[in-house]
């Protein structure tokens, strides 16, 4: 009985707090921007790194006087790495926090869960790093500042053929991920076109931790390389189990490998693997160097590609906001769409008719906790 009373009190406190905060007057001296990202969960470095990049850009804009005299307020909400949460926090950011735009997500599947909401409510959404083509196809309020997977798949297929001289490749992909499924398909199409053979095409589920059955089947086909376009947590485990089973073929992947945790999880097993990415800390581009310097000064660590892409997405949003005498959703949408030759940390960004960015990709090799730049491939 006593327990129930306590619960009731807590519940009413929580709901009255929610009510008051819901009624808070909008401060007209601020422009509110939302970020929805995986701050916790199995790919938490994606959300955290992106948030670091976004915050750097926003703090920098505010230090320089903000936008037409107004400060930008960033509200970050955690998707916990779940699609349902992505949809729900984006709804909250738009309806309760009255954001002018949303930045996010990293994972294509979660961007796909949120995009129809942003589109329906006509609030511009910019994903820093979701690469599946379907994301921006949702509608004219959905943008990205990165390349898309038909290009990324081509980059790695060419790399397999030209650099690794591989003719037989196996695939190991995640079925519940639009990113992993799409990137595999694009890789396969290009690799076959270049004369290669796919000797195995295996898959796993989102929460899987044991990949031995798939790897055993792959091993029996003797591939010269294995393409594993998943996210770092599972890729780390896959690499370990592959080596335990005696598989020596090099592993390849896409941007989903980009995390300081990859080497922590995979150890020696991920060393020597190759993946395509949006940016490399070996970049000599002035905009990239300026970004890296500022990032290190603020966070005392080296930025990954997610931080760079988050920074670029926020910078492009700020630049678009600055062109507007009055911020309306449609004017902001149009201003973002006009982005041309923006000198981003991840390269020069022009948003095309399909609201995607046409940009180069880099291929890096995992070498312990750092990744070594191997080559850059233009679109
Ligand atoms: N491109 C991945 C996706 O669309 C997300 C990602 C981007 C992961 C960059 C890591 C680095 O799902």
The beta-strand count equals 14
The CATH homologous superfamily name of the largest domain equals Response regulator
Strand content: 15-25%
Architecture per CATH nomenclature, i.e. the level-2 architecture of the largest domain: 3-Layer(aba) Sandwich
Determine the fraction of residues in helical runs and give it as a percent range.
40-55%
How many individual helices?
13
Overall number of structural domains? 2
Largest sheet: 7 strands, mixed
CATH class designation of the largest domain: Alpha Beta
Mean pLDDT rating: 93
Q: Numbering strands along the chain, what is their spatial order in the largest sheet?
A: 7-6-8-9-10-13-14
The Rg value, from CA coordinates, equals 22 Å
H and E order? HEHEHEHEHEHEHEHEHEHEHHHEEEE
What does this structure look like?
The protein has about 375 residues and is of the alpha/beta class. It has two domains: about 30-145 and about 285-360, 3-Layer(aba) Sandwich (Rossmann fold), CATH 3.40.50.2300; about 150-275, 3-Layer(aba) Sandwich (Rossmann fold), CATH 3.40.50.2300. About 45% of the residues lie in helices and about 20% in strands. The chain is built from 13 helices and 14 strands. The protein has a seven-stranded mixed beta sheet with strand order 7-6-8-9-10-13-14, with helices on both faces. A hairpin with a 2-residue loop joins strand 13 (about 360-365) and strand 14. Helix 2 runs parallel beside helix 12 (about 305-320), helix 3 (about 85-95) packs parallel to helix 4 and helix 6 crosses helix 7 (about 180-195). The longest helix has 22 residues, at about 1-25. It is globular and about 65 Å long. Residues about 1-25 have low confidence and may be disordered. The structure holds phenylalanine (PHE). The site of phenylalanine (PHE) has 14 residues, from helix 12. Phenylalanine binds next to helix 12.
């Amino acid at each position: 009985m006593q327990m129930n009373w306590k619960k009731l009190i807590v519940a009413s406190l929580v709901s009255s707090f929610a009510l008051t905060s819901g009624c808070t007057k909008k401060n007209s001296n601020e422009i509110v921007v939302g970020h929805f990202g995986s701050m916790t969960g199995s790919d938490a470095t994606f959300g955290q790194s992106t948030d670091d990049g976004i915050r750097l850009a926003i703090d920098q804009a505010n230090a320089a006087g903000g936008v037409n005299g107004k400060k930008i307020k960033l509200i970050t909400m955690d998707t916990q790495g779940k699609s349902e949460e992505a949809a729900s926090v984006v709804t909250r950011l738009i309806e309760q926090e009255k954001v002018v735009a949303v930045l996010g997500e990293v994972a294509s599947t979660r961007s796909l869960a949120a995009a129809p909401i942003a589109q329906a409510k006509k609030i511009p959404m910019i994903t820093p790093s979701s690469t599946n083509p379907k994301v921006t196809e949702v509608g004219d309020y959905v943008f990205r500042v990165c390349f898309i997977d038909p290009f990324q798949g081509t980059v790695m297929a060419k790399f397999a053929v030209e650099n690794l001289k591989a003719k037989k490749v196996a695939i190991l992909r995640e079925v519940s991920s639009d990113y992993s499924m799409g990137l595999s398909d694009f890789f396969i199409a290009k690799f076959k076109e270049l004369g290669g053979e796919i000797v195995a095409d295996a898959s796993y589920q989102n929460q899987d931790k044991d990949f031995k059955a798939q790897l055993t089947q792959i091993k029996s086909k003797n591939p010269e390389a294995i393409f594993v376009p998943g996210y770092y947590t599972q890729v780390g485990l896959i690499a370990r189990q592959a080596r335990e089973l005696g598989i020596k073929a090099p592993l390849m992947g896409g941007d989903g490998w980009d995390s300081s945790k990859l080497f922590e999880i995979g150890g020696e097993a991920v060393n020597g693997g190759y993946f395509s990415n949006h940016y490399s800390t070996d970049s000599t581009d002035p905009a990239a160097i300026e970004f890296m310097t500022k990032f290190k000064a603020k966070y005392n660590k080296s930025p990954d590609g997610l931080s760079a892409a988050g920074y670029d997405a926020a910078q492009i949003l700020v630049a678009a906001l600055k062109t507007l005498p009055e911020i309306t959703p449609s004017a902001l949408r149009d201003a973002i769409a006009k982005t041309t030759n923006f000198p981003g940390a991840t390269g020069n960004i022009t948003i095309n008719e399909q609201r995607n960015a046409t940009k180069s990709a880099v291929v890096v090799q995992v070498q312990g906790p750092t990744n070594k730049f191997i080559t850059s491939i233009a679109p």
